[in-house]
Amino acid sequence: MDPDFDFKDIIANANDIVIVTEVAPLDEPGPRIVYVNRAFTDLTEYTPEEVLGRSPRILQGPDTDPATRRRIHAALTRNQPVREEILNYSKSGRRYWLDMNIVPLVDPDGGVRYFAAIERDLTERVTAEAMKDEFISTVSHELRTPLTALRGAIGMLNPQVVPELTPQALELVDIAQRNCARLLYLINDLLDMEKLASGGVPYSFAPQALAQVIRTALDINAPYADQHEVRLVFEPPRVDLQVMADEQRLLQVLGNLLSNAAGFSPPGGEVRVDLQPQDDRVRVSVCDDGEGVPESFVPRLFQKFAQAPLRSGERRRGTGLGLAISRGIIDQHGGEIGYYPNRPRGSCFYFVLPRIQGQAGGR
Ligand SMILES: Nc1ncnc2c1ncn2[C@@H]1O[C@H](COP(=O)(O)OP(=O)(O)O)[C@@H](O)[C@H]1O
Ligand SMILES: [Mg+2]
Predict the structure, then answer these.
(1) Domains of the chain (ranges, CATH numbers)
(2) What residue ranges line ligand 1, CB within 6 angstroms?
(3) How far is residue 353's CA from residue 281's CA, in Å, rounded to a whole number?
């Protein structure tokens, strides 16, 4: 039964934008617009008369991402549907973000003569996200300064400086100190994430002997492993494996992997660090024999703020940013980071970096 109303009226009044274009030409001057609804005129400030017969390209501008445009072009060339977030410009030059969903309209004879784009205005969400990032960054900066001072002051509360401290007072100082360190750690994670997201971390690359960097990381993280009664094991290979890297950033990645491995290991457990050449790359893995990562959580590893659900009796430790930061850092080195389950139990996290070739001592 055909309903006795006109779908055109519904589309004309929808809150989302609907644009229909011809399929060709995808290259200059672009396909012609044959229909726009009211949501389109409201957002873009163009009247239908001003845009009919012209290409949607008039809505793009200097900051519209060329890569997004290429992906859309590639999909439409193959008559495939495509969904992208894209920055467009209104008639008066106001910028707005769209969730754009383009579908080919298939004729009864199977041909495609039109594309329909259904678009939702995302500007508020994108603006809110930018404000949130800015807020996190500002607050973290503001918190870090007094906290650093606080840590310094508490650090002075030791028997060498203040001999009259009772054992009870020292215990309290110890609690204060550990919590200060933890807070600083969390704040630094937030700041690092924000800096990585905005591309504002300066890297200083230099040739690094990876075995030496790993040894340094093991030294730095030994106290934490001790706390968890976990042994850190590393047998360096005989070959000198050199990579072009920012040592501090690599130490940060290794610190994240080691602290996770130690934190998720049972007391008496062992964390193994392995360093191997692999073709023209170098591979570092950090394996533990802890609980491992639940299979359902594996796809979310390396995402911001992602943490697997706590097991009973477990206490939440970090921010869920360590792996996301690590991936950002390894990306900046042209490397790759990943996870696979350890056998018979536990986790292995690894990263690979391009190896410097023809280095003295290298093979
Ligand atoms: N070695 C590991 N064993 C088991 N789970 C892990 C391990 N490393 C990371 N994970 C899981 O990945 C999550 C994210 O890790 P990470 O980004 O370092 O954040 P955080 O350590 O602050 O929770 C952890 O909360 C945990 O659920
Ligand atoms: Mg962590």
Answers:
(1) 7-121 (3.30.450.20), 126-197 (1.10.287), 206-354 (3.30.565.10)
(2) 256, 260-261, 264, 288, 290-293, 301, 306-308, 317-324, 347
(3) 6
